[in-house]
Amino acid sequence: MIGLLLFSMSLDSTLAKVDSLYQISWKDTSAFETAYSILDSLLKTDPENPEIVWRYAYFCYNKGSDAKNKKVRMEWFIKGKEICEKLLKKYPENAELHYWHAVNRAKEGEARGVMSSLFMVDDLKKEANLVLKLNPEHAGAHVLLGGIYDALPGFAGGSRDKAIQHYKQAIQNDSTYVAAYTRLAEDLIKKKKYDEAREILQKLLNLKNPNDARLYYLEDRPKAEKMLKELEGKK
Fold it and tell me: Which tens digits make up the pLDDT trace of 23-32?
């Protein structure tokens, strides 16, 4: 069935189909696996196409994030990292390849434990900044940098203020970028800036076209609603 679908569609329309299936996968779990199967088939026929590869790495990230078993999580993140790594030699200026390489590498480090990932922090920062050099409007790279500054202890260069700056810049670059909102709100709450946190969370709840509907409806929207409830009465 997948083979017939790919045969009858151009690459652009097939990738558009993958993207649309992903966007409805929050309410139809089979859509996610269908989209992954299409990408997997595309990858086998065209393993050096950056548009296929970065999307595949994105799905590796999602599959790793969803996995309950640590070993399985690691395997997906490593797979996503390595598939981008191979192609970056050929396409060193592809921002999405760099971004999903860095994200999967960061998640691999996180799965190993904070101390195990400290050695890769400088590389992650460099790659995130390279993404911004290649695409100054890239919201995800700012979220990645914000996450790095949040995760690091102060003695190793961690900074909540820098994290907040990056999350705010991500939203400024792309107001539909779901991943920035709750992270920003969490940091604002830690700084007791409750009104500002409420405003950010409400903006998230009011989003009409989130960039990642799966993340929005399955994770960040419910999380924002819970956070707002917990903020009731705080001044």
Answer: 999 999 899 9
Mean pLDDT score of the chain, rounded to an integer?
Answer: 92
pTM of the complete model: 0.91
The 3-class SS string of 155-168 reads HHCCCHHHHHHHHH
Angstrom distance (rounded) from CA 91 to CA 218: 33
Q: What is the pLDDT of residues 5-17, one digit of tens each?
A: 444 468 889 999 9
Q: How far is CA 27 from the centre of its chain?
A: 19
Q: For residue 223, what are the CA distances in angstroms to 79, 107, 205, 206?
A: 29, 20, 10, 14
Quote the tokens at residue 164.
């907040």
- State the Cα–Cα distance between residues 228 and 198, nearest whole angstrom: 6
Q: What's the CATH class of domain 137-221?
A: mainly alpha
The residue extents of the domains of the chain are 137-221
Contact yes or no for 143/180 (Cβ under 8 A) = yes
| pLDDT tens digits along 127-175 | 999 999 999 999 999 999 999 999 888 888 889 999 999 999 999 999 9
| Enclosing H/E stretch for 120 | none
Sign of CA dihedral 105, 97, 23, 140: positive
Question: Would you say residue 115 has pLDDT above 70?
Answer: no
Look at the block and give the residue holding tokens 């598939």.
Answer: 83
| Max Cα–Cα distance, the chain, nearest Å | 59
